[in-house]
Design goal:
By secondary structure, the chain is mostly beta strands. It has one domain. The chain is built from 1 helix and 11 strands; from the N terminus they run H-E-E-E-E-E-E-E-E-E-E-E. Strands 3, 4, 5, 7, 8 and 9 form a 6-stranded antiparallel β-sheet that branches. Strands 1, 2, 6, 10 and 11 form a 5-stranded mixed β-sheet that branches. The longest helix is centred in the first third of the chain and has 15 residues.
């Protein structure tokens, strides 16, 4: 009997030691993704599906890191920005198909530059990173073949949550 009481008392003390901020809630905002919305270049108020869209970063050692496991068909995409530096270079792809092992795609390289601000959230959640002063530039090496015709940062151009669209891409 005394052993059961001892274990019960130990368990009770253990649970009473937990505080509200010891657990990071799923609803707690963390480092946001960059939210991109696609629009028709001929009707700039009409959202447009980016067919078979994918995004990938080519790392310094030449490895390709795809963000989406499978290509998406949507008018909105969310991609992460690097927190360890003040820029991220992505290859944004539409019409990506794999046929007999060959990848067919239309790719534009976009460079995102920003300031990094680490903000304390709570003891359990730690820090989140905010991206300030976002700037997006499409590589214009061959502008005739670019599928992205215009890219526009929304104001304010800070990425602090995923509730607003940060970039409009017209194609």
């Amino acid at each position: 009997m005394s052993h059961k009481f001892f274990y019960f008392l130990l368990l009770l003390i253990g649970f009473s030691a937990c505080q509200k901020d010891d657990i990071c809630s799923e609803a707690t905002p963390t480092t946001p993704h960059l939210v991109i919305q696609f629009f028709d270049i001929n009707n700039i108020t009409e959202a447009k599906i980016a067919p078979n869209f994918n995004a990938y970063e080519v790392t310094d050692n030449g490895n390709i890191s795809y963000y989406y496991e499978t290509a998406i068909n949507d008018t909105i995409a969310k991609i992460p920005l690097r927190t360890d530096q003040n820029f991220t270079d992505y290859n944004l792809v539409i019409n990506q198909f794999i046929n007999d092992g060959e990848i067919s795609e239309n790719t534009d390289q976009v460079s995102f530059t920003y300031g990094v601000n680490d903000k304390f959230v709570s003891r359990a959640c730690g820090y989140k990173t905010e991206f300030l002063g976002l700037d997006a530039q499409v590589d214009q090496a061959n502008p005739v073949e670019n599928w992205i015709k215009t890219i526009e940062e929304q104001q304010p151009n800070d990425v602090i949550d995923e509730n607003t669209t940060h970039i409009y891409i017209y194609f």
